[in-house]
């Protein structure tokens, strides 16, 4: 639902600003009341996601044509759900975003995505099924990069903890390059219980471990599979390791035994999807 435009600052300066660009908000008001998403890929995906509530759309004059192109691809029903585009200058967007943000002239104020129930998701999940489980991966850029790879290679869902995982944020959404609004992100309170739920639903759990004896792809890939990834510094926790049906490593060469977790995830996803296609053939 759109919100009314914030009032202009009082006095002659505010009057001149209003005459110059009648739909441009006073500084600092374009980002009030919600989370931020910036960057053209992330913004396009959020606009297209019917589950995403958009509170405000801001764009510079240079980027407004890009926003209109994004809106033109949406259904009429989705366009009716969206607020009008607010004109802002680059400094206003920069002031609203974190210091290191590259906003590309577009900025959304949004509500967080609604939560998903793992049990309901598994009941309606397809076969073949490929999931990712993130065990205490806390860096938002890593989680965002994992979601980007998950979207690129058709992962059906990502499971992360309520705690010990980054909240939804503009930094995560930007790193995901649209993946946050494409791949279902399911947060769970108890990861051990979530792993049991997946097993009960016929999902095999393969944990990535650089010390594992067997390489990823060395055995037939289950049609219903969850790849389980741990934090870069500590890897999988003991109980998570014990819950896995198999522990596998990437076939790296000495002296490099491991990769950044987002790079490892991309390779593991691609290998697993290829394996599922081969098994099904």
Provide key terms for this protein.
alpha/beta; 7-stranded parallel beta sheet; Alpha/beta knot; 11 helices; 2 domains; 36% helix
Overview of the structural elements:
With 281 residues, the protein is of the alpha/beta class. The protein folds into 2 domains: 12-110, 60s Ribosomal Protein L30, Chain: A, CATH 3.30.1330; 118-280, SPOUT methyltransferase, trefoil knot domain (Alpha/beta knot, 3-Layer(aba) Sandwich), CATH 3.40.1280. Helices cover 36% and strands 19% of the residues. It has a 7-stranded parallel beta sheet, with helices on both faces. Residues 1-28 have low confidence and may be disordered.
Structural class: alpha/beta
Q: Which CATH C-level class of the largest domain is it?
A: Alpha Beta
Spatial ordering of strands, largest sheet: 7-6-5-10-8-11-9
Stated plainly, the CATH topology of the largest domain is called Alpha/beta knot
The multimeric state of the shown protein is single chain
Elements, N to C (H/E): HEHEHHEHEHEHEHEHEEEHEH
User: For this structure, what is the CATH homologous superfamily of the largest domain?
Assistant: SPOUT methyltransferase, trefoil knot domain
Number of strands: 11
Number of domains: 2
Model regions low in confidence, pLDDT < 50 over at least 5 residues: 1-28
The percentage helix is 25-40%
CATH architecture of the largest domain: 3-Layer(aba) Sandwich
Q: How many whole angstroms does the radius of gyration measure? A: 22 Å
- Average pLDDT value? 89
Report the end-to-end length measured between terminal Cα atoms: 47 Å
User: Globular, elongated, flat, extended or rod-shaped: what is the shape?
Assistant: elongated
Beta content comes to 15-25%
Number of helices, counting only DSSP H or I runs of 4 residues or more:
11
Characterize the main sheet.
Answer: 7 strands, parallel
